[in-house]
Design goal:
The chain has a single domain (2-170), classed as Up-down Bundle (Bromodomain-like). α3 runs antiparallel to α6 (143-166). The protein contains 6 helices and 2 strands; from the N terminus they run αααααββα. It is an all-alpha fold. The relative contact order is 0.19.
Amino acid sequence: MLKLLRFNSRIWFFLGFLGCVFLLSMGAYFQFVQGLDPCPLCISQRIAILLTGLVFLSAALHNPGQTGVTAYAISGAVTALCGAAISTRHVWIQHLPADKVPECGPGLEYVLQNFPLFETVKLMLSGTGDCAKVDWTLLGFSMPEWTLLAFVMLATLSLLQIWNYKGSDDR
């Protein structure tokens, strides 16, 4: 059964890239079609998805040997797990009691224009009261919870390529 799933790691990395494109497309759909404005943590998660997708695309285009696959797999897992950490913080903020939620900060555009880059990054990663609002759910899970699941799946897919490559000789 597992031999059926042992495609070339290049194909799996490309499928991971397509998954990232899908996630970014859904974010754009919710923002531009449904009118849901992303909070700073949502934007940070999108950046992590973009970086993970770029690692996957690079691996698929490069088609490296085992050492390269291992390096790409670890890089993809690290970027996905960084995104998972951001998603975890977002989920945590959404589950805080109302009196413990951080205050809403200024808009991201204002912060980008008026604050140094370090302060902007700090705001994007710490989250604001805007991040506590749940605008959308599917099967009882909020968007950050689904994004956390996606990051865990992307990290797993990435790390499995180390094992997948080792078995490519006996195909």
